[in-house]
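Table S2 (text version). Query chain:
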Amino acid sequence: MNFNERLKPNTEFIIYKPFKMSQTHLDVLNELYLPLIQAEASMIYIYFNESSTHYEPLAVRFHREIMDEFGKPLSDFSTELEKLEAVGLIRSYVSNEAHDDLFVYEILLPLTAESFFKDPMMSLYLYNQIGPDAFRKKKEKLVYPKMPGNVAEVTRKFTEVFTTGSTGGFTLPQETFQKESYSSGPNMDLDDFDFDVLFTHLKGTKIDKAFFNKEIRMLIVKLSALFDLNAYDIKQILLSSTTQYAGIDKEQLKYEARRYYQNENNNKLPKLNNDVSSEDKGSPSDSYIKNLENISPLDRLNDIRNFNPSDGDLKLVTDLIAVTSLPNGVLNILLEYVYQQKQGDLNYPYTMKIAKDWESKGIRSALDAYQSIMDYRNQRKKENQQANSKHNFKERQGERQPSWMKEHKSRQGDKEKKTGEEDSKKQSGSNQKTAKDDPEIQKMIQEFRKG
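Corresponding structure-token output:
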């Protein structure tokens, strides 16, 4: 959503708020959210809540109203709104109708105090923002005593007190009623972490893919963002917080992630920074991709194959190093890409064809290789969306293609694969130079193995 282009004084907006705030909600907002989002964002949230009571539900209003109330330009408003979106207090929507500039702001209730303190991102950011003493005092203020012990429930059931009458002509209502719409915490998405890369790392371990339900996946997304963890880091953490029969322990996972980060950062904890623009953040996979530049393809192969590569795997990696001029990072991306594409089969002709293609395009870094895959994927995705609206609806519901390491299986792709296999067979039949024939390459491989 580009506010600089879409947001004008005469741009219309609607407040969607099917609930009423209570004093408890305001207490949580003031005690827990205010230190994170600061006063301006908090006032916008309260204004949206209070002002909506003076209008009919879904009344159309204009953004000049916000400019007049706060005495600020809309660029300042959009900055504060982003904070509210990020912590999950507001969801913003824009009309898909042509020539219709209409925004819908859905107001969400703050997390409950318990949910806030148990959320790894919100609680840790608050801890760093206000310090341990203030954090402890706020928590104590919002804690409620447990139910007294040694009691037995004697509550009457409904059927013990009431009897049902005639049901003739009665049908259950289908309308939408007022309801409490709670925040789900920081605005994160499952696509913010590449689980396919993680599952590649986890092959051969005791950690079953079935352990990763939606709740566990979202927790991993939050922890990876909070502690700047890549797939390899998450693997190490999971090994310490998973049992074969009980699965992944959420509390242990949070503890191990925090300990892992502190061990790597001299016992420091991450801090919330509101000054980093979205353009400066980079993609969630950037750190992992950059790390691939410093890993030898032979080491990456060992990691993929759990230190048991086949002779064909070793020949493939050796020939990639010897025949192409692609650097380590590009070769590592290539290996992971093919591994995902071929369900674990590092197909020689297919891999060599892509390597030659990338070499001819001048791809010289893991990030360039990643971007090449993303560009192709986006191109195919647009074509699919135009050709099949039903499939596009499924993707919006969350059933999208799960990995950047995925090409569209089309007739054209099969044709290219067949051509690549034929070309590679011809090349294999010729006097192809391998690492075994070149002492300089042998020396390089030894260096790779050392580090």
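Notes on Table S2: Confidence is low (pLDDT under 50) at residues 275-284, 391-412, 425-438, 447-451. Strands lie at 12-16, 61-62, 90-94, 102-107, 242-243, 247-248.
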